[in-house]
Amino acid sequence: xxxxxxxxxxxxxxxxxxxxxxxxxxxxxxxxxxxxxxxxxxxxxxxxxxxxxxxxxxxxxxxxxxxxxxxxxxxxxxxxxxxxxxxxxxxxxxxxxxxxxxxxxxxxxxxxxxxxxxxxxxxxxxxxxxxxxxxxxxxxxxxxxxxxxxxxxxxxxxxxxxxxxxxxxxxxxxxxxxxxxxxxxxxxxxxxxxxxxxxxxxxxxxxxxxxxxxxxxxxxxxxxxxxxxxxxxxxxxxxxxxxxxxxxxxxxxxxxxxxxxxxxxxxxxxxxx
Length: 273
Prior knowledge:
Layout: H1 2-10, H2 14-20, E1 24-25, E2 35-40, H3 48-51, E3 61-66, H4 83-94, E4 102-108, H5 110-126, E5 132-136, H6 157-167, H7 172-175, H8 178-197, E6 211-217, E7 236-241, H9 251-272
Parallel strand pairs: 2-3, 2-4, 4-5, 5-6, 6-7
Antiparallel strand pairs: 1-3
């Protein structure tokens, strides 16, 4: 009886669903899905890239993509000043969904840190966590390697654009469009400042119990992926793909990522339910 009452309180209201649509994008509804896969964007990124991945997953997985303040339909809102602001907002929208279906997180670069911080908050404050955390393109939050990374948020716009052109992943049309850059660069620098200010000490024990998978491009700047293993007691693996920082924009890599994530999540459902 108590559980039923709790579920009723947590059930998403119409008002909540309408507000959630402003911050979390779902382009391909899967009402019969057993798992909701939540994507967290890279620095400066919007929600559409990952939201479009929803068409490649089968009926067992429904894809949601986080839309951060200051971009897309939220372009008039102020950027988040720290990672806690992002985590608070995402948790607010996810909590009513937790009793319905399993959740899994996937983050790339900056999104790996925000997805991890969200998973930790859910577990520490609410006693729940995603069934799996897929992280990509960044060292573990407590890794010393992060301390020696250049502060890209302090680069001039010109130097930042030069770095973006070598990192790949940013369409040439955007890099050559002054109006588009006026919106893109501030969002990216705001996110980069959060990445660079986010300090996380190595915990005494694992803070998560879910499985954790690391993805990376084999031509990207070296990342301390092994350190992610310190953060969970669940299963752990590392997989590398051809390409640099935005390896996941390559169609073949996308196909393999979707296949891997689908197989893992469907296997989890079979094993635990």
